[in-house]
Design goal:
Alkaline_phosphatase_core_sf; alpha/beta; hydrolase; single chain; Phosphoesterase family-domain-containing protein; binds 2-acetamido-2-deoxy-beta-D-glucopyranose; Alkaline Phosphatase, subunit A
Length: about 425
């Protein structure tokens, strides 16, 4: 065929693509139910966790974080399923993301900082830097993350396409993204042969629940359509109707001691405060608080301070110990005698790209040690990992360097072409050495 006669075919293909892009996606259940494994998730579970021990907390024995994407508080608050969830739980009306875009928010909730990150590229945090997993394991508390459509356990890639289960005749869909899988970014987790087994798939979730081994700390990331990222809040509502509602009445997931925190990584609109809808659900929410609201100023750092207070954990010595941005969920603060601060003039949490850090090539500074004198909500001291140089404090850091101006990237950035494999492939740029 001559190039000229190909043209109409190409145009046709292009317009078909446009037409399908313009068609709103409609929710289809990936399986018969949240506890039934499905081929729509690429690989079946090969393992169950073996966590039988329960470490008692002051206000809950299990916490399940569920994160949806990019929606302003007001949009969520006026969507029916969310309205009814608010009636069953405690609505946190002043809960906030800490910056934009997505990835730094996921890092913040699990590490107490986002280290200057202001994009969604492929980074890794060195193994001497602590995260929530260190705090939990220090007290023998079991944990896992469950990533919908992650193609296999220990997957380290940037993105993963799978057959489009809602529209099988369409091209494979990029359901899984690494930027929403926080613990894989920490070398202390993903490069540890035992810990990495706890970064799990939704088929593993079904298997773990059915086998009675759902851990005490959980982080759940729905796929790119179910979390509203590529779709709408109504689409995410349909997903919750399919996935969360049945689990709320299943004692293997939600018992008297379970706290479920359903929230969003960040607001959609950058020009307003980063206020996201968040609800505390589950058997651990006191009856008298259900259907009420709490207007205390919380951020993603509160998810760290709240578990620290609940289980008497050590802290990370980062923003998880900054009283202004880490109020403990009030009903947990009450049970643990933690005094929250009344924040009358909250910081703007919608700012991005202005913070120096090891992940900001425009204002690069090395990773520093945490503040070892910080007082966390668990009163347990600051946890440090081996290989940490405690003398490299925030105050001792050199002035930020603009690596972008030197045509370099952060040494902690990796090639996004690393779409498979388990090991770090360092940044190829010579200046990163
Ligand atoms: C995959 O999802 C589609 C859409 O809901 C459904 O029709 C199909 O039965 C699912 N396949 C399996 C194996 O569950
Ligand atoms: C889960 O439990 C079932 C029933 O006890 C068992 O047959 C299965 O092997 C367990 N799964 C794994 C992966 O151990
Ligand atoms: C189970 O093992 C098979 C074979 O090694 C692998 O292809 C599959 O991805 C594994 N499943 C998970 C959830 O890792
Ligand atoms: C952040 O939100 C505040 C309102 O809280 C607004 O005044 C400000 O312009 C926003 N900043 C940016 C960079 O959009
Ligand atoms: C604590 O948080 C506030 C608000 O974001 C910020 O202004 C302050 O610098 C932080 N303090 C430390 C020690 O990081
Ligand atoms: C952490 O480890 C990295 C990699 O070995 C090293 O470059 C850095 O200086 C260390 N940082 C601290 C605070 O110890
Ligand atoms: C760093 O340098 C780049 C390229 O010269 C420039 O675009 C950027 O604004 C600089 N960043 C800062 C924080 O000055």
């Amino acid at each position: 065929m001559s190039p000229a006669s190909l043209l109409p075919i190409l145009l046709l293909a292009a317009s078909a693509r446009l037409a399908s892009a313009a068609t709103a996606q409609v929710f289809e259940p990936p399986s018969k139910g949240p506890l039934v494994q499905t081929a729509n998730y690429t690989s079946f579970s090969n393992s169950t966790l073996n966590d039988k021990k329960v470490v008692k907390g002051h206000a809950f024995n299990r916490i399940i974080h569920i994160w949806l994407e990019n929606t302003d508080f007001a949009t969520t608050a006026s969507t029916p399923i969310f309205e009814s969830l608010a009636e069953q739980g405690l609505l946190l009306t002043n809960y906030n993301g800490v910056t934009h875009p997505s990835e730094p928010n996921y890092l913040a909730a699990t590490g107490g900082d986002f280290w200057g990150l202001h994009d969604d590229f492929m980074y890794h945090v060195p193994a001497n830097i602590s995260c929530v997993v260190d705090l939990l394991e220090d007290k023998g508390i079991s944990w896992a993350t469950y990533q919908e459509n992650m193609p296999a356990d220990e997957f380290y890639g940037f993105i993963s396409d799978a057959p489009n289960y809602a529209a099988p005749s369409s091209a494979p869909y990029p359901y899984y993204v690494r930027k929403h899988n926080p613990l894989t970014i920490y070398d202390a987790v993903s490069q540890d042969a035992q810990r990495v087994k706890r970064i799990r798939t939704f088929n593993d979730f079904a298997n773990d629940v059915v086998n009675g081994t759902l851990p005490q700390w959980n982080f759940v990331t729905p796929n790119m359509v179910n979390d509203a990222h590529d779709t709408t809040i109504d689409f995410a509502a349909s997903f919750l109707e399919y996935w969360l509602l049945p689990l709320l009445s299943d004692p293997r997931v939600n018992s008297e001691e379970t706290l479920i925190v359903l929230t969003f990584d960040e607001a959609e609109t950058y020009t307003i405060q980063n206020n996201v809808w968040a609800v505390a659900l589950g058997g651990a929410v006191p009856l008298k608080l259900r259907g009420t609201t709490d207007s205390t100023f919380y951020t993603h750092y509160s998810s760290l301070s709240t578990i620290q207070a609940n289980w008497g954990l050590k802290s990370l010595g980062r923003q998880d110990t900054n009283a202004t941005v880490s109020n403990v969920f009030s009903f947990v603060a009450e049970k643990t005698d933690y005094k929250n601060v009344h924040v009358t003039n909250p910081p703007n949490l919608n700012l991005t790209a202005i913070f120096p850090g090891p992940f900001n090539s425009g204002a690069y500074v090395p990773f520093s040690a945490p503040n070892l004198k910080a007082q966390g909500a668990g009163h347990g001291g600051v946890l440090t990992r081996s290989g940490l140089n405690p003398k490299l404090t925030a105050g001792s850091l050199p002035k930020p360097v603009n690596m972008t101006a030197l045509d370099a990237t952060s040494p902690w950035q990796m090639s996004p072409e690393t779409t498979s494999g388990k090991k770090i492939i360092p940044c190829a740029n010579a200046a990163c050495a």
